[in-house]
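Notebook, bench 3.
Goal today: get a predicted structure for TIGR03557 family F420-dependent LLM class oxidoreductase from Antiquaquibacter soli so we can plan the truncation constructs. The sequence was checked against the plasmid map this morning, with no discrepancies at the termini. Length recorded as 317 residues. Pasting the sequence as submitted so the record is complete.
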Amino acid sequence: MQIGYKLATEGFAPTEIIRQAVAAEEAGFDFVELSDHYHPWLEEQGHSGFTWSMLGAIAARTTSVGLVTGVTCPTMRYHPAIIAQAAATMALISDGRFTLGVGSGENLNEHIIGAGWPVVSRRHEMLREALEIIRLLWSGGYHSYKGQYLQLEDARVWDLPTELPEIAVALSGEASIAVAAELGDGMFAVEPRAELVDGFREQGGAGSVYGEVPLAYAATEEEALAPLREKERWALAGWKVMAELPNPVNFDAASQTVRDDDLLEAFACGPDVEKHAAAVGSFVDAGFDHLVLHNSGPDPDAFFEFFATELRSRITE
């Protein structure tokens, strides 16, 4: 089992994200995972730097911690040929520490190119074509591809690592499970649902199983709740809503009725190591082996100390 730390690029300035990555390595995390957004979920979050620039800087400032995108959409805002090149370069400059996490995207980030927001079935087909293009380019040489939605013409990724990055595919249901099992090296999910892991395995999926664990560490439960009310209430909408809303103002409107009790149910809040360990354990019990701790508490450094001195030993014992 590996333990990672979620670097929320919507919540902190790019320089702070890089600093936190270095601190996460020092605290003993096995990897860090960066969200890849154009917009934040809420205006109150206030940031959304370019993830691939931050990845390069983190690779240069760390030596052992793994680097994961959680997740990149390689179909609209980025063409898959660009992601094939970017991921190959990241694997080289990080000495093989990079994993490409991909998904079918959210309207929030992809509508900016003015191409409209496809229905979910089309998004899954686009993701399938994108992964086929990435795999094709990673095979070496020049390639062209003519899909129903995506095309490639005489393209070659010149700098390829000897060992290609793993691709972990985000999934939430049958259609995305099929894509992940066929074209991924692993899977990524944000809910501790054993049926997702089982479905992935039953369809032939192998490799790492990433799960994002929602935590909020602070000295008291109330101190943990305060930043959740302000910046994290969007997370309770569920992916069927989160994938569709176009702007932070829409997430603000959709989350106005979220109550403290809802947040307490969704996040492990406060200083109790057993509460945090139980949240992690729900993912372990569901079959996840790469656990991404997403701390939304007010003080990242306090969480790093908590992890190093209490939580890590508790969840790996």
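The chain has 13 helices and eleven strands. The first helix runs from residue 14 to 27.
Flagging this for group meeting.
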